[in-house]
User: What shape does this take?
Amino acid sequence: MSKLVPPHASDSLMPLLVPEAERAEELNRAKTLKHVPITSRETSDFLMLAMGAYTPLTGFMGYEDWRGSAVDMKLSNGVFWPIPITLSCDKDIAGSIGVGETVALVDQESGKIMGALEVSEKYAIDKIFECKHVFRTADPKHPGVAKILRQGEINLAGHVTAFSEGSYPEDYKGLYYRPAETRALFASKGWSRVAAFQTRNPMHRSHEYLAKIALEVCDGLLIHQVLGALKRGDIPASVRTRAIDALTSRYFVPGTYIQAGYPIEMRYAGPREALLHVLFRQNFGCSHVVIGRDHAGVGNYYGPFDAHNIFDTLPEGSLITQPLKMGVTFYCYKCDGLATTRTCPHGPEDQLQISGTRLREMFVNNEKIPEEFSRPEVVAVLREYYAGQK
Ligand SMILES: [Zn+2]
Assistant: This one.
């Protein structure tokens, strides 16, 4: 019988999305409220709250929770939480809103009203302080830091009611699963131990290798794509999905994996973000998460295994879901197979490694991609995409 991990610090999931039948009425009411624009990062957090992925949060954080999650990775009630989930606005808007007032949250990009916020607190933060704790740097060149620095001066806290998920359910039909839905799927398959494999790229052989190591020790695999805003040069989700399908349909055992996506926007907070990724995977019903080299990192801000080591520093009981820590993966010609630095004794001259930048260049120049690096069926999907880019 399926026995999944419980949601984070709660007996049940706490989605904030109102039932479909009530959404039109809520939306009409919200039109009469003051409008607060929210950025794409805030919208992505709103959607995570709406679907219950951020259980047990019921809205955007107040000052004590902001400070606690930034400094000690703990909410004021003692619950483990590694990254502030906050909403900001500029001084003028904040000044016009009273504590106790309910405001409408409007996605800046689409102009759509997404939900309502019952404002319980307004507060200013020290952005540099937050960045130094969460990102380990306040360098404005770090993309996550840059977003914090661009935030409004005042944070608004309070309970969120969601009545829209924007265009996600429509745009990502067949991929957009909410935590209650992945849990029901896992249960229907009789899975208890489920590993999440996070990706924002197509899967090449090293990814296949990691996913299959997870499958060797778990009942099932959730291939979980980031659907939030992309960085320049990233492969669009539709192409990624086809490339992953091309791999799994030929090289994975049917019924052992599910491909899905979720609406987060990457912060590139490295180790802290790895903790958040494991926390919300617990809400999705996953008992394990594959954490590879430099998980959620960017540039050279984090050591290759900082995102592994941080798990060893947590107080016991912080998270039930656990990382599957994996080394650097490659094809080794001497071993004659995929391996990691933990299992292959040979040197770089025998190991095939291709960086993301070099791989893009190889596609653009129509060079041959070695079969040891990527399955030909995956390469075919990507070649078609790059050919259309010219
Ligand atoms: Zn080797």
Residues 332, 334-335, 339, 344, 346, 350 surround zinc ion (CB under 6 Å). The mean pLDDT is 95. The chain has 14 helices and 14 strands. The radius of gyration is 21 Å.
